[in-house]
Specification:
- The chain has one domain.
- Helix content is about 60%, strand content about 0%.
- It has three helices and no strands.
- Pfam families: DDE_Tnp_IS66_C.
Length: about 70
């Protein structure tokens, strides 16, 4: 049972690293990208989750929300 928990944590960490890397590749500062995305995530409908992905997020969107 503990192995399943560790595997789950490792997958979550790998996903977070992938999203951070994708944010950098798409010209975002990772913190500036994650802050508004994490703020919107709890209220975002499942049908619009893809709008929060780094390649669909405009580089100036964080400045409009928090600037």
């Amino acid at each position: 049972m503990p192995d399943l928990y560790v595997d789950h944590l490792a997958r979550g960490k790998a996903l977070a690293v992938q999203v951070l890397h994708s944010a950098r590749i798409n010209g975002h500062d990772p913190y500036a990208y994650f802050k508004p995305v994490l703020a919107r995530l709890p209220t975002c409908p499942a049908s619009k989750i893809d709008e929060l992905l780094p390649h669909r997020w405009p580089p100036t969107a964080w400045a409009q929300l928090f600037g």
